[in-house]
Write a structure and sequence with these properties.
This protein is an alpha/beta fold. Helices cover about 60% and strands about 10% of the residues.
Length: about 600
Amino acid sequence: MKPPRAADDTPDAIPGHLPVAGPRQVRRAALHFIRQDRRTFVAMIVLNALAAAAGLVGPWLVGRIINAVKDGGGVAAVDRLALGILVGAVAQLLLTRHARYLAHRFGERTLARIREQFVDRALALPASAVERAGAGDLTARGTTDVMTAGQTLRDTGPDVFVAAVQALFILGAVLLLDPLLGACGVLGLTGIWFATRWYLRRARSAYLDQGAAHSVLAEALSATATGARTVEALGLRDLRIADSEEKIERCVSARDRTLFLRSVLFPSIDVSYAIPVVAVLLVGGALHEHGQVSLGTVVASALYLRQLSQPLDTILQQVEQLQSSSASFARVEGLAAAPTRSTGPADTGEADSAPAPDHIPKDDRIDVQRVRFAYGDGVDVLRGVDLSVRPGERLAIVGPSGAGKSTLSRLLAGIDAPGKGMVTVGGVPIADLTPDRLRRQVVLVTQEHHVFLGSVRDNLLIAAEQATDTELRAALTAVGADWSDGLAAGLDTELGPGGHQLHGAQAQQLALARVVLADPHTVILDEATALLDPTTARHTERALATVLRGRTVIAIAHRLQTAHDADRVAVMEDGRVTELGTHDDLVAADGAYAELWHSWHGDRPRPASS
């Protein structure tokens, strides 16, 4: 039964999840990789065909030996035929060995291309798409799924292809020996066809469910490990264990489903192997008794059909791996249909796809026009925001928790796109900027920070590959990271497990140093110094103010002192900008900002008693 057209043409997509490619997209991607190494692939096909032809020599010569002996032939005739069998076997061995060598070369090169393409696509994903899908899903696709697809191209795929060529040649040989015996053999194989058809109709969805269950489990375990201290501090151990056990049960259930499919397929195949051989012996014996076929032809046909069990066994034993790898490849290739930062259609994997146009802003002015935004199908977090940020201005955004400040910063940085309205920089919608252009234009720095495995230098060169050691040290100094001067190996000090461990403030200063090196036109600081102690935070903010002079700085103010030092202050309440002006003007206006300021200083005068 052919799957529905929609499932064949369009990727499977679940809101909040990364897409899964449909069968047509998987086939197109596979053909694309084959075209990239077509010479090796064609050579592999030719050698496999020659090896399969060489493998037909043995049974045919056995039949000739039987007829020769029956007709009274001598030892010399038998020896010549036996030598032919040996030559055919050696030729098949050598051809098969070289074909397998080419197949492994093809598989390893293709695996490298799949990995590189996956990394490129993953880096092109918007941060919002990764956040909604969960790091566990992306990690599972980039590790287990890529490896499974690669192993299929390197091992399973070539094995199945060789076996398929051999099976076709063997069936052709039986039909040439005697069409009636060949027809009996083919009819005897119908049981295998029905069992395989039953399996294939159910296998793809079962393996996709299994892959999704593994991704959910990986996400749950990753979240628990990352937040281990929080789990311990808040006594969430039992809750996290229960959640993990639920995810494990889902994995076991999905695995049981695929095991059940295999437990039905393989016994059916084992029984079906004997049927063609028995049919040929019975029919051939009857025909030989009536003189319609020679004994050698019957024996050769039976040997061919017995030999057929080997390639069929290879094919059918690998059907499970092919279905698993097909599901894995569909998950890997699904990233082609995921939204990217670039404009134009999603990447199809075609070598000649045109690059997206690079829109160039005319200046650094940022305009937010009637912007509304909601996460998923929830209520609007931003409700008609209008705001303009002048080039070189330092704007502070303040407001109570849940007012929409961080959400607005994500839209300003191009991480999320507004549901309605528009966010532009230099007259160009931020959503239309390519990743490289966006990074040169706007950088968002949040409370979250990451220390990559590697040295201090490696962590800094991420932001500026060509930076010199002098520039790296200057960036560290600019953000107050004086601790870097005391490291034993200096910039070569290894960070992370097994190396130097940075505490929260140091890791955040390292992230801020990367911003200095990136040298963007606009920096958005979303409570970027919240984890620093007040003295270090003030020092870092002063250093940044010096470094970022002449650039646009938008600060989500955690401390109102940041707002005091800004050129203008925007006050957000309930998803709207309710006040906008200088610190002094807003305090004098005695509105929401003045209330926040006096509350922070504790100097709000009490109302006179009546």
